[in-house]
Amino acid sequence: MWSNKIQSGVFFGIFTMIYLLVWLWDYSFLSLTCYVLLGIQILWFLYNIVTSRILGNDHLGVRFKNIDFSVSDENVRAHVDSLIKIWNVLVYNAISIFSFSNPRKSIKIGVTFFVLALVGRYFSDITVIYLGITFGFLWPKLYKEKKTQIDSFYDTAMKRANQQYDKIKDKVPLEKLGFLGKKKSE
């Protein structure tokens, strides 16, 4: 996304404007969508007037009549198949997490749920979505520039987390609860 800075800036500006409209002026998603579509319709109308009457070119309706916008069955099947694969992976992971078949993964996800619950206490839903999309928008560029520092910090954090997990695992008899399967042999 960052290869074209103008496109990235326009995308980020539009998303920030939508966030401000929703957050500051309490627009609902439906009204915001309708206003955007109305704006597109007005711009389309003005463009058609300029191109057809002033410049003498065909308006967009004439140009788009010859373009086929239909969707093929193969294209739909490919997308539906990929959605089914994603759904199956999500269900498998959810069962794995909630059944504690992998305790380390379940505890990590539990801590993530707890942190997200704390964040949700202090920020509105739209702000959390905005922060998530902003992070997702900026992360590739940041990671590309600071890859070595981020990787070393991640490795250090994972080592500390694993040490804490091992301390907790030694103190809590998870084997007796059946989470880890067999008991340790001494």
List the helices and strands and how they pair.
Blueprint: H1 5-24, H2 29-54, H3 60-65, H4 73-98, H5 103-122, H6 125-145, H7 147-171, H8 174-177
Helix pairs in contact: 1-6
- How many runs of DSSP E, i.e. beta strands? 0
Helix content: over 70%
| Bulk shape | elongated
Helix run count: 8
Main sheet: strands, sense, barrel: none
Q: Helix and strand string, N-terminal first?
A: HHHHHHHH
* Uncertain residue segments: 181-186
Mean pLDDT: 81
Structural class: mainly alpha
| End-to-end separation | 54 Å
Radius of gyration equals 26 Å
Strand content: under 5%
Could you explain how this protein is built, in words?
With 186 residues, the chain is mostly helical. 80% of the residues lie in helices and 0% in strands. It is built from eight helices and no strands. Helix 1 (5-24) runs antiparallel to helix 6 (125-145). The longest helix is centred in the N-terminal third of the chain and has 26 residues, at 29-54. Mean pLDDT is 81; it is low at 181-186.
